[in-house]
Sequence to fold (199 residues):
Amino acid sequence: MDKRYRLLPQIKVASTPCFVMEVIDLETVTADSPALMAMTDLSVQPTATIGPRVPLELANVAMIQHGVRLLVVTSEVEHNRIVGLITSTDLLGEKPIQVAQQKGVKRSDLVVSDVMVPVEEIDILPFEEVRKASVGDIVATLKAAHRAHALVVTDGTSGQQLLGGIFSASQIARQLGLTIQTHDLARIFAEIDAVIAGV
Fold:
């Protein structure tokens, strides 16, 4: 064995019970906190991705496994190139039923690309703007766009855009101290507005 590396001492599990560590709570924010405090930084936390030809049922399983409500859909040909987004609403709402009826197929025959939001229809936030923004600015932007999520991009070295972060309305609500029991976006924003207004 290479002498530059040392063996770490190992111990036995204590006779008192050993527990799984709880996930560290998200940092508490206010509407005036820097927006970056509420952004999921994808340089630290891996992006939850999925391919466009994956069946919807497996996409739902992937969301549950990753503990997210949004998956970034990436090309099967060009590594890591974003081709769309799929949210829990896209999966579990009326959209799959409508698409299945239009195509004359069963819902179980649908794949991610059938219900995803294509990349051409996605609005993004430039990192430079986010860096100067507050949490309240992000909430106002999400609310005006009627969206639960916002993607943050930065410019890469060869001129392409790189996905650097994601904002989630439900995560912001939790960081504001709310316990979210709904997927209804209007109710989430109503609760956030009440906290920001101090009601």
Remarks:
- The two ends are 64 Å apart (CA to CA).
- Strands lie at 40-41, 49-50, 70-74, 82-87, 117-118, 124-126, 149-155, 161-168.
